[in-house]
TrEMBL record:
Keywords: Membrane, Transmembrane, Transmembrane helix
Main localization (coarse): membrane
Native species: Roseateles albus
Entry annotated with the keyword Membrane: yes
Assigned protein family: Belongs to the LemA family.
UniProt protein name: LemA family protein
Keyword Membrane: yes
Membrane-crossing segments per the record: 6-23
InterPro entries linked: LemA-like_dom_sf (IPR023353), MamQ_LemA (IPR007156)
Cited Pfam families: LemA (PF04011)
Localization in the cell: Membrane
Membrane topology category: Single-pass membrane protein
Amino acid sequence: MSNLNWALWTVAALLLFWGIGAYNRLMRLRNAIAAAFVQLDEHLTTRAQLCSKLLVLLQPLLSNERATFEALEQAQAEVSAAAQAARPRPYMAEPVGMLGVASAVHAAALTRLMSMLEHHAELREHADLYALVDELKMVERQRSFARQLFNQAVGQFNEAITQFPTRILASMYGFREARSL
Protein backbone atom coordinates (compact mmCIF):
# COMPACT_ATOMS: atom_id res chain seq x y z
CA MET A 1 0.00 0.00 0.00
CA SER A 2 1.18 3.44 -0.79
CA ASN A 3 1.42 6.33 1.63
CA LEU A 4 -1.66 7.92 0.05
CA ASN A 5 -3.75 4.80 0.71
CA TRP A 6 -2.58 4.73 4.32
CA ALA A 7 -3.47 8.38 4.72
CA LEU A 8 -6.93 7.85 3.24
CA TRP A 9 -7.57 4.84 5.50
CA THR A 10 -6.39 6.84 8.51
CA VAL A 11 -8.69 9.76 7.68
CA ALA A 12 -11.61 7.37 7.09
CA ALA A 13 -10.95 5.64 10.44
CA LEU A 14 -10.75 8.99 12.23
CA LEU A 15 -14.04 10.12 10.69
CA LEU A 16 -15.69 6.82 11.61
CA PHE A 17 -14.54 6.99 15.24
CA TRP A 18 -15.49 10.67 15.47
CA GLY A 19 -18.97 9.83 14.09
CA ILE A 20 -19.43 7.03 16.60
CA GLY A 21 -18.28 9.27 19.45
CA ALA A 22 -20.55 12.13 18.37
CA TYR A 23 -23.54 9.79 18.02
CA ASN A 24 -22.90 8.30 21.46
CA ARG A 25 -22.63 11.80 22.96
CA LEU A 26 -25.95 12.82 21.44
CA MET A 27 -27.60 9.63 22.70
CA ARG A 28 -26.16 10.20 26.19
CA LEU A 29 -27.53 13.76 26.22
CA ARG A 30 -30.91 12.61 24.94
CA ASN A 31 -31.03 9.93 27.62
CA ALA A 32 -30.24 12.62 30.21
CA ILE A 33 -33.39 14.43 29.06
CA ALA A 34 -35.40 11.23 29.60
CA ALA A 35 -33.88 10.72 33.07
CA ALA A 36 -34.66 14.30 34.06
CA PHE A 37 -38.22 13.88 32.80
CA VAL A 38 -38.71 10.81 35.00
CA GLN A 39 -37.97 12.94 38.07
CA LEU A 40 -40.26 15.69 36.85
CA ASP A 41 -43.01 13.18 36.09
CA GLU A 42 -42.83 11.79 39.63
CA HIS A 43 -43.50 15.27 41.01
CA LEU A 44 -46.33 15.82 38.54
CA THR A 45 -47.93 12.57 39.71
CA THR A 46 -47.51 13.48 43.38
CA ARG A 47 -48.96 16.93 42.73
CA ALA A 48 -51.96 15.37 40.98
CA GLN A 49 -52.61 13.09 43.95
CA LEU A 50 -52.35 15.97 46.41
CA CYS A 51 -54.64 18.18 44.32
CA SER A 52 -57.21 15.38 44.19
CA LYS A 53 -57.07 14.96 47.97
CA LEU A 54 -57.37 18.71 48.42
CA LEU A 55 -60.41 18.87 46.17
CA VAL A 56 -62.09 15.99 47.98
CA LEU A 57 -61.51 17.79 51.26
CA LEU A 58 -62.65 21.21 50.03
CA GLN A 59 -65.72 20.40 47.96
CA PRO A 60 -68.01 19.70 50.94
CA LEU A 61 -66.70 22.75 52.79
CA LEU A 62 -67.03 25.24 49.92
CA SER A 63 -69.81 24.05 47.67
CA ASN A 64 -70.28 27.55 46.21
CA GLU A 65 -66.75 27.49 44.69
CA ARG A 66 -67.55 24.74 42.20
CA ALA A 67 -66.14 26.69 39.22
CA THR A 68 -62.72 26.90 40.87
CA PHE A 69 -62.74 23.19 41.62
CA GLU A 70 -63.80 22.29 38.08
CA ALA A 71 -61.09 24.50 36.61
CA LEU A 72 -58.44 22.73 38.68
CA GLU A 73 -59.84 19.29 37.84
CA GLN A 74 -59.87 20.09 34.14
CA ALA A 75 -56.35 21.55 34.27
CA GLN A 76 -55.16 18.46 36.14
CA ALA A 77 -56.68 16.20 33.49
CA GLU A 78 -54.91 18.19 30.75
CA VAL A 79 -51.55 17.94 32.56
CA SER A 80 -52.02 14.20 33.04
CA ALA A 81 -52.86 13.69 29.36
CA ALA A 82 -49.93 15.85 28.24
CA ALA A 83 -47.52 14.06 30.59
CA GLN A 84 -48.78 10.72 29.27
CA ALA A 85 -48.07 11.89 25.72
CA ALA A 86 -44.58 13.13 26.64
CA ARG A 87 -43.50 10.05 28.66
CA PRO A 88 -42.40 7.85 25.74
CA ARG A 89 -40.27 10.56 24.13
CA PRO A 90 -39.64 13.55 26.39
CA TYR A 91 -37.08 14.87 23.92
CA MET A 92 -39.75 15.52 21.26
CA ALA A 93 -40.81 19.15 21.05
CA GLU A 94 -44.55 18.82 20.44
CA PRO A 95 -45.65 16.73 23.46
CA VAL A 96 -43.37 18.69 25.80
CA GLY A 97 -44.81 21.93 24.43
CA MET A 98 -48.32 20.67 25.16
CA LEU A 99 -47.19 19.77 28.69
CA GLY A 100 -45.78 23.27 29.14
CA VAL A 101 -49.07 24.88 28.15
CA ALA A 102 -51.09 22.49 30.32
CA SER A 103 -48.75 23.16 33.26
CA ALA A 104 -49.23 26.90 32.89
CA VAL A 105 -53.02 26.48 32.92
CA HIS A 106 -52.73 24.20 35.96
CA ALA A 107 -50.53 26.72 37.78
CA ALA A 108 -53.12 29.44 37.19
CA ALA A 109 -55.94 27.21 38.49
CA LEU A 110 -53.89 26.19 41.52
CA THR A 111 -53.02 29.83 42.26
CA ARG A 112 -56.71 30.67 42.10
CA LEU A 113 -57.50 27.88 44.55
CA MET A 114 -54.75 28.96 46.96
CA SER A 115 -55.98 32.54 46.80
CA MET A 116 -59.50 31.35 47.54
CA LEU A 117 -58.21 29.44 50.58
CA GLU A 118 -56.62 32.59 51.96
CA HIS A 119 -59.92 34.47 51.74
CA HIS A 120 -61.90 31.86 53.68
CA ALA A 121 -60.90 32.38 57.30
CA GLU A 122 -63.27 29.66 58.50
CA LEU A 123 -61.01 27.02 56.90
CA ARG A 124 -58.12 27.83 59.22
CA GLU A 125 -59.49 25.45 61.84
CA HIS A 126 -58.97 22.44 59.52
CA ALA A 127 -55.46 21.21 60.33
CA ASP A 128 -55.67 18.43 57.74
CA LEU A 129 -56.35 20.98 55.03
CA TYR A 130 -53.35 23.13 55.80
CA ALA A 131 -51.09 20.11 56.21
CA LEU A 132 -52.12 19.12 52.70
CA VAL A 133 -51.53 22.66 51.43
CA ASP A 134 -48.04 22.70 52.98
CA GLU A 135 -47.23 19.35 51.39
CA LEU A 136 -48.48 20.64 48.04
CA LYS A 137 -46.26 23.73 48.34
CA MET A 138 -43.26 21.51 49.08
CA VAL A 139 -44.01 19.32 46.06
CA GLU A 140 -44.34 22.44 43.91
CA ARG A 141 -40.85 23.57 44.98
CA GLN A 142 -39.46 20.11 44.19
CA ARG A 143 -41.25 20.09 40.83
CA SER A 144 -39.78 23.48 40.05
CA PHE A 145 -36.29 22.16 40.76
CA ALA A 146 -36.92 19.03 38.66
CA ARG A 147 -38.17 21.26 35.84
CA GLN A 148 -34.97 23.27 36.06
CA LEU A 149 -32.89 20.07 35.76
CA PHE A 150 -34.99 18.99 32.77
CA ASN A 151 -34.48 22.37 31.10
CA GLN A 152 -30.71 22.16 31.69
CA ALA A 153 -30.60 18.71 30.07
CA VAL A 154 -32.59 20.04 27.12
CA GLY A 155 -30.24 23.01 26.81
CA GLN A 156 -27.15 20.80 26.75
CA PHE A 157 -28.70 18.54 24.11
CA ASN A 158 -29.80 21.46 21.94
CA GLU A 159 -26.36 23.03 22.20
CA ALA A 160 -24.73 19.76 21.14
CA ILE A 161 -26.89 19.29 18.04
CA THR A 162 -26.20 22.81 16.81
CA GLN A 163 -22.41 22.59 17.06
CA PHE A 164 -20.47 22.01 13.88
CA PRO A 165 -19.65 19.33 12.72
CA THR A 166 -22.02 17.38 15.00
CA ARG A 167 -24.87 19.26 13.33
CA ILE A 168 -24.28 17.21 10.20
CA LEU A 169 -24.58 13.92 12.09
CA ALA A 170 -27.59 15.16 14.05
CA SER A 171 -29.52 15.84 10.87
CA MET A 172 -28.40 12.53 9.32
CA TYR A 173 -29.63 10.50 12.31
CA GLY A 174 -32.80 12.47 12.84
CA PHE A 175 -31.94 14.27 16.07
CA ARG A 176 -34.25 17.24 16.44
CA GLU A 177 -34.17 20.15 18.82
CA ALA A 178 -35.82 19.36 22.15
CA ARG A 179 -38.12 21.77 23.93
CA SER A 180 -37.80 23.01 27.46
CA LEU A 181 -40.64 23.62 29.88
